[in-house]
Amino acid sequence: MERYTQPLSDDHTLEVYNHDQLIFSENGHWLTPLFAFERFLETYTGEKDCLSAHDTAAGKAAALLMARFGVKRAHINLISELAIEYYRQHGIMFSYEKRIGRLQCKTEELLSEMDDQEQMYRLLRKRAKLVRGVSVHVEHLSFSYPDHPPILDDLSFHLEEGERLLIQGDNGMGKTTLLALLMGKLKPTTGTILIGEEEVSHLEKRTIGYIKQQQQEQQFPVSAREVVAMACDSSLSREEQQWEIDTALRRTKIEHLAERNFFTLSGGERQKVSLSRTLCQKAKLLLLDEPTSFLDAKSRTTLVEVLQSLTIGEMPTIIIVTHDKALEKDLGWPTLLLGGI
């Protein structure tokens, strides 16, 4: 008998082996142990060429997570037909002790009609409350400068935690003004903005990460790495900060630019450094102003990949304003139109 198929110890609901070596165990309900295993894998450096899991129960959700985390074999005490189907589709060897039609839980019901793996994973993280983002509620927002016509007039929209929104409009439609209002740099003429349950002026530091349009500025000697490092949480150890910086640079594919002077970089390169800085900040709300400006095709692809990765993994709330109409197709996000475009 393979070790992973042997009975679980009394205080474990999930055990994961690599071949016959136990590398992870956890006690918990629902999908909590599997998400703990995901966090374990982020820092685990041992072998994982033959991951085998023993779980107390598995529906489609557990099967999806195991497949995503690289599990090749699974033994389940109580398994659903949906899990069996998913294991078979993804080439995972499985055995079980008891088989039922469907687990009696809301998650199994929600996933039963879904096929998109990324969206299923996103749903599971939301139900597990593994969402970094904050809600955004904009109600009847208007803004104008004294003795000028309104730039924004009676605008309302709502985003829940971890949602994303693309705001499109031609130049002069108030896109950048809206970002300034969300950040508290301008005050509404009328209407309200709540980030989470707070007014913008009461937000905790580091809640909002902002990536502005890249423009030429006065130069001074600061490296790309130093720009990213400015956003690191100072309460982390030096080693933890270094890891966060390196990870942010790697995700945007600019490790090779780390020691270059930020102000000698091209507009597209500086845009990616700014994105790395925001990743390092771990902001709950990301605001991006024309992020594709100055980007070549390769850099644009990297930007889209990073944004999609964020919406599936960390799930901050993200708002992008742009007049780039192709970005809606690239991202596939809900879109709000300002003005007549």
From TrEMBL:
Transmembrane segments: none annotated. GO terms for molecular function: ATP binding; ATP hydrolysis activity. Residues 100-127 form a coiled coil. It comes from the Bacteria. Residues 136-339 form the ABC transporter domain. Keywords: ATP-binding, Coiled coil, Nucleotide-binding, Transport. The keyword Hydrolase does not apply. InterPro entries: AAA+_ATPase, ABC_transporter-like_ATP-bd, ABC_transporter-like_CS, Cytidine_deaminase-like, DUF1893_TM1506-like, Hyp_TM1506, Metal_Ion_Import_ABC, P-loop_NTPase. It holds the Pfam family ABC_tran. This is DUF1893 domain-containing protein. It comes from Sphaerochaeta halotolerans. The lineage of its organism: Bacteria, Pseudomonadati, Spirochaetota, Spirochaetia, Spirochaetales.
